[in-house]
Amino acid sequence: MKHVVITGASAGIGAGIARELARAGASLTLVARRRDQLEKVAAEVGVPCHLVTADLADPEAGFDWLTEAEAALG
Fold first, then answer.
1. 36 phi and psi, to 5 degrees?
2. Do residues 57 and 32 lie in contact, with contact meaning Cβ atoms separated by under 8 Å?
3. Other C-beta atoms within 10 Å of 2: how many?
4. DSSP readout, the chain?
5. Statement: residue 59 has pLDDT above 90
6. What was the pLDDT predicted at 32?
7. Whose C-alpha in 9, 15, 26, 59 is 20 to 30 A from the C-alpha of 49?
8. Cβ atoms of residues 26 and 48 within 8 Å
9. Spatial CB neighbours of 48, under 8 Å, sequence gap ≥ 6
């Protein structure tokens, strides 16, 4: 099974990509600013998901969550 990181996953194109990749059997790390929306997408897709609440437009947000995502889902 593949593990895919999707940014902007709380709505729109990002959520749509999450649905499609879940149908293909991927585990997902979903990244967005709105945790409540990420939780809704994760509940809907029905595959293992790691949720990251971050605003990637903010340079201070960094990518330290990548190690945590890899540990959670490979």
1. -60, -40
2. no
3. 11
4. --EEEEETTTSHHHHHHHHHHHHTT-EEEEEES-HHHHHHHHHHH-S-EEEEE--TTSGGG-STHHHHHHHHH-
5. no
6. 95
7. 59
8. no
9. 27, 28, 73
pLDDT for the residue 17: 97
Question: pTM higher than 0.85, yes or no?
Answer: yes
Identity of residue 13: I
- Residue-wise pLDDT for 8-55, tens only, equals 999 999 999 999 999 999 999 999 999 999 999 999 999 999 999 998
For residue 40, what pLDDT is reported?
A: 97
8 A C-beta contact, residue 9 and residue 33:
no
Tokens of 61: 């947000």
